[in-house]
């Protein structure tokens, strides 16, 4: 970009409606101020489409390990209790310790990723995770299991938050929804295959192979990240949210800053409170609470699923693991469809407001109704998830044919996955400079509320019964989410 024409002054002089999609117009000599801006405006990302897909494939692989570590562990609880000669309650304490660390670690790692860059933090996190799994595979005491599970949580839990940061770096707002949908395919698939894989491995060849498989898979992921991200990719991803992303037109890209002699940020210790500060924004906490309501329902449904199906339908441990498949497959389908849906809603909103989308350079979200865009279709899925959750509970209460709760479970998984992706993408849109820290803030709140929900779940099932317990969760989704949305981002900002 020529030094004689500052980018900010050019952008300020051009109405947004005059920006044209460069991919749709042939090259020509600039004759108007709009044409000058088109020729001078740098692309949102210099990565090609194939490079973006490779990067997203790698971070999707990495993001799989956070939920996989939890769901693959559940079927091995009894085997671990017998092998280590401790009670099931003590094994459950390792699940609690894992969740606590998984809730806190992204707050530290997310700020570190926004400050120092994504790739270096990925390498650190995956190294810790791989080493923890090796330790878990060879340990023989409950104390070692307890400590190493916390280390495992610290290494694996941050990968999803960092993944959002990477997507924010490489994808413009108009295409971001699709990439977020792809990113979350891995974690959603893990919820489906984790229990089945864990049950099979715990039965034969033994629970230690659960952690050996995780160590081998994470080591492979670490190798792929190290080898397939070239030096050019390293240079791009090591930068915090740079001005190559045009969510904020006041920023300049890293190469321009260096050419002008501007110094880079000095290193500082990661600040976990940076995530908490993000929650102080009204829009952020409202979006996070919607996410948390859904996550609490998701956690309670998943935690009780195998126990309830074994009790009501007399399933074996292996068959009980298979009942997770409809929910997991629906989540994968929902993650994929949510990307297509968000990209469609973005184009539809731009058309309604007479805004020309800048696919290459990225749109200025300070003048784009992004909240209305992301929440354009969410109401349908609030209704589906709430009603399906209630129906799921009453179908189990009535002991209907097993296909009925499985179908309703599929609908719940599909709608929850779409809601997760919509809320997560909007958080990135609202915090383009610190997307990983924003997701870490979301992680803290959702893990806290889910822990409370899991703590009272057994009490609710015993005193209210299955039907009324899930009616409570379904009603909470419909009423609270609708109330938050009516008073939330769409109403506040627009």
UniProtKB/TrEMBL annotation:
Keywords: Membrane, Transmembrane, Transmembrane helix, Transport. This is Major facilitator superfamily domain-containing protein. It is found in: Membrane. Gene3D superfamilies: MFS general substrate transporter like domains (1.20.1250.20). SUPFAM superfamilies: MFS general substrate transporter (SSF103473). It comes from Lophiotrema nucula. The lineage of its organism: Eukaryota, Fungi, Dikarya, Ascomycota, Pezizomycotina. The chain crosses the membrane at residues 54-77, 89-109, 121-138, 144-167, 179-197, 209-235, 316-337, 378-396, 402-428, 440-460. It is a multi-pass membrane protein. GO terms for cellular component: plasma membrane. Its main location: membrane. It comes from the Eukaryota. Residues 55-492 form the Major facilitator superfamily (MFS) profile domain. The keyword Transport applies. GO terms for molecular function: transmembrane transporter activity.
């Amino acid at each position: 970009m020529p030094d004689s024409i500052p980018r900010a002054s050019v952008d300020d002089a051009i109405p947004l409606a005059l920006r044209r999609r460069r991919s749709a117009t042939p090259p020509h000599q600039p004759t108007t101020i709009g044409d000058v801006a088109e020729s001078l405006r740098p692309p949102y990302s210099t990565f090609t489409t194939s490079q973006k897909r490779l990067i997203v494939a790698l971070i999707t692989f990495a993001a799989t390990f956070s939920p996989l570590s939890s769901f693959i562990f559940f079927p091995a609880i009894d085997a671990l209790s017998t092998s280590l000669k401790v009670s099931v309650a003590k094994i459950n304490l390792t699940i609690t310790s894992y969740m606590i660390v998984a809730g806190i670690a992204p707050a530290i790692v997310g700020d570190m990723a926004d400050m120092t860059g994504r790739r270096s933090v990925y390498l650190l996190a995956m190294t810790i995770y791989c080493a923890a799994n090796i330790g878990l595979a060879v340990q023989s005491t409950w104390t070692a299991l307890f400590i190493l599970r916390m280390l495992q949580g610290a290494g694996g839990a941050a990968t999803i938050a960092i993944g959002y940061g990477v997507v924010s770096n490489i994808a413009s707002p108009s295409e971001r929804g699709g990439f977020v949908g792809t990113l979350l395919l891995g974690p959603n698939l893990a919820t489906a295959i984790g229990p089945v894989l864990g049950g099979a491995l715990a039965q034969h060849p033994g629970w230690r192979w659960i952690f050996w498989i995780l160590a081998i898979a994470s080591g492979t992921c670490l190798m792929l990240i190290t080898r397939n991200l070239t030096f050019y990719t390293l240079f791009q991803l090591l930068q915090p949210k740079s001005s190559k992303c045009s969510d904020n037109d006041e920023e300049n890209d890293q190469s321009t800053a260096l050419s002008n002699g501007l110094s880079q940020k000095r290193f500082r210790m990661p600040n976990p409170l940076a995530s908490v500060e993000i929650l102080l924004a009204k829009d952020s906490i409202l979006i996070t609470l919607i996410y948390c309501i859904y996550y609490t329902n998701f956690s309670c449904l998943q935690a009780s699923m195998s126990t309830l199906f074994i009790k009501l339908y007399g399933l074996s441990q292996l068959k009980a693991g298979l009942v997770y498949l409809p929910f997991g497959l629906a989540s994968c389908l929902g993650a994929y469809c949510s990307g297509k849906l968000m990209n469609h809603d973005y184009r539809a909103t731009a058309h309604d407001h007479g805004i020309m989308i800048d696919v290459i350079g990225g749109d200025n979200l300070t003048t784009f109704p992004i909240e209305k865009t992301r929440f354009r279709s969410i109401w349908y899925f609030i209704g589906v998830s709430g009603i399906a959750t209630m129906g799921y509970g009453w179908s189990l209460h009535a002991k209907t044919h097993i296909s009925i709760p499985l179908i309703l479970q599929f609908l719940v998984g599909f709608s929850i996955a779409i809601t997760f992706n919509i809320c997560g993408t909007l958080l990135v849109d609202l915090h383009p400079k610190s997307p990983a820290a924003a997701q870490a803030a979301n992680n803290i709140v959702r893990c806290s509320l889910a822990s409370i929900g899991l703590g009272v779940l057994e009490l609710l099932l015993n005193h209210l019964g299955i039907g009324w317990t899930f009616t409570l969760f379904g009603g909470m989704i419909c009423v609270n989410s609708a109330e938050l949305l009516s008073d939330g981002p769409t109403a506040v900002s627009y």
